[in-house]
């Protein structure tokens, strides 16, 4: 089989120019992956796509300025379905928009560079979109995994209303890496916003405005949990973008003019002190929960359980809700 192709981008592209460059779509799936220093996990992620039961796909991989062996590995893979697009480091969202410009198929599936897809994932999700023409984006349940083991499937809401309500509450309704969407809908909503965080949450909410959201009743994705810590400043910045995505969706739904991030940040400073304190506690709980998953499925399971208890003390409702979903998967 001919070697994978390498494309290049010489300068940043706005989504308007990406849309203008996009041609008509053909049947099949464009699988899109953004890569930044993803070795050694990248090998398993790529192979999980190449060995799918559904084979009518192109695999568009944007290397976002990796400094490890990621790009060298990608260039060594001998598969004509792979298109490699190297660029200087601009972030996941920008890489997603560059990749979108090169999609030629009617469906677009996401894949994260350190995760793993079930062999039937593309087939099941493409079948769901074929059978439900009113659905703009479909996903699945998932399970956490690490270097040592994998967890039980985490159930996700399946119907549009349940997914959308969860997203507006700030609860997980979809998993970005496990999703597949109609490429024309992705173009219609303008691709990814290019802020630093939560481009996926914003995308989910905007895709809900051009069609329905759906999760199939299968666990088709393994999400790698890392045990790295997050600084309080980074958590606060992530929270700002997360709240901004939800706020803008509510404004659009209610017919209220949207605002830019700077204006939202200025307005947000006037929120009640109790709400600000609650958000900080939630940030601490989230950081502990994320790290607990990495330790539990990595090499420190006891420490992970202790950290999970710590997360529940900082925000009992959110943490117990996450634990409850994992427990329900054990008895279903």
UniProtKB/TrEMBL annotation:
It is an enzyme of class 2 (transferase). Keywords: Glycosyltransferase, Transferase. Its EC number is 2.4.-.-. InterPro entries: Glyco_trans_2-like, Glycosyltransf_2, Nucleotide-diphossugar_trans. One of its GO terms (molecular function) is glycosyltransferase activity. Residues 30-186 form the Glycosyltransferase 2-like domain. It holds the Pfam family Glycos_transf_2. PANTHER family: GLYCOSYLTRANSFERASE, GLYCOSYLTRANSFERASE EPSE-RELATED. Belongs to the glycosyltransferase 2 family. This is Putative glycosyltransferase EpsE. It comes from Crateriforma conspicua.
């Amino acid at each position: 089989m001919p070697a994978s192709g390498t494309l290049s981008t010489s300068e940043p592209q706005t989504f308007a120019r990406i849309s203008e460059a996009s041609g008509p779509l053909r049947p099949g799936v464009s699988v899109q992956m953004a890569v930044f220093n993803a070795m050694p996990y990248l090998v398993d992620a790529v192979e999980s796509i190449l060995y799918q039961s559904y084979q009518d796909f192109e695999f568009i991989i944007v290397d976002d300025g990796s400094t490890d062996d990621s790009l060298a590995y990608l260039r060594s893979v001998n598969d004509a379905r792979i298109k490699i697009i190297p660029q200087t480091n601009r972030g996941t969202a920008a890489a997603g928009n560059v990749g979108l410009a090169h999609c030629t198929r009617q469906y677009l599936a996401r894949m994260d560079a350190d995760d793993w897809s079930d062999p039937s994932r593309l087939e099941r999700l493409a079948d769901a979109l074929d059978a439900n023409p009113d659905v703009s984006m479909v996903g699945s349940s998932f399970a956490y995994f690490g270097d040592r083991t994998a967890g039980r499937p985490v159930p996700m809401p399946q119907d549009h209303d349940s997914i959308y309500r969860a997203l507006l509450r700030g609860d997980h309704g979809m998993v970005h890496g496990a999703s597949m969407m109609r490429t024309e809908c992705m173009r219609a909503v303008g691709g990814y916003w290019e802020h630093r965080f939560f481009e996926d949450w914003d995308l989910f909410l905007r895709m809900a405005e051009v069609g329905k959201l759906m999760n199939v009743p299968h666990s088709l994705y393994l999400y790698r949990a890392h045990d790295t810590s997050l600084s309080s400043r980074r958590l606060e910045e992530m929270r700002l973008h997360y709240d901004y995505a939800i706020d803008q969706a509510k404004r659009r739904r209610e017919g209220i003019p949207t605002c830019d991030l700077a204006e939202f940040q200025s307005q947000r400073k006037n929120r009640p002190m109790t709400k600000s304190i609650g958000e900080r506690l939630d940030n601490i709980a989230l950081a502990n929960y994320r790290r607990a998953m990495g330790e539990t499925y990595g090499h420190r399971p006891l420490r992970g359980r202790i950290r999970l208890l710590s997360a529940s003390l900082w925000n009992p409702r959110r943490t117990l809700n996450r634990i409850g979903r994992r427990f329900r998967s054990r008895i279903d």
